[in-house]
Task: structure prediction
Amino acid sequence: MAKTAVNISFYRYIKHDGKKRDEAVSEGFAHPRWRGVPYRRWQFNKAFALDKTAALKSTSWGLFQIMGFNHEICGYEDVHSFVKAMNRSVGEQIKAVVKFIKHNKKMYQAYLNADWKTFARYYNGPAYYKNRYAKRLANAAVEYQAKELARQESKESESPNPVTETVKNVGAPAGVLAVLTAFISELLASANLLKAEMGSLESIAWIVGPIITGIVIVAVCLKLYVGLQKLNNTKPLSA
Result:
């Protein structure tokens, strides 16, 4: 359910009807100037009973507190369909605020530039600083960026290691051999490319040593692994 803030500038939308205007002023839910005091639900209810359309236009709706008179900017033909959408889901509220921000090119550019003072001034009006909107937006942006970075780092850390996956899937001895074979193939391909470019086997002598060393190390590791496996599988003699 959408949140509804009864922040009514009702006077503006009934001033053409002197009788309704005078009644609203006398009842305390319409004023010629904004007094900086939020209106209450009972005031909205009275305004709605007096003039439904004017009351809906004079009220801010949804999580993003978009005034009803902005319904066309948000893509709705009339304020009634706008209010229904705002009460339908948060998704509708998000679509509305995106259109609302993009409609004002200066506000949208301020958003893209992370210029929160300018953005808050266009979004909330000249008194934006009273509620520290720019500061709160800047803090929220930093917090979001930190969470997004942590999420990306977590995702990267969870990526499977190809060597570990190979060993896990085919077993340690076969896995190590598979990895070694792939490694040697890459080295030999690089050696052949270098030979073709430089025309001499001597130019690739530096690569032969690491290959031989790698084979020896892996052979020793495999022998040690097989020995440990045999040791683990040997049952102790009964006393």
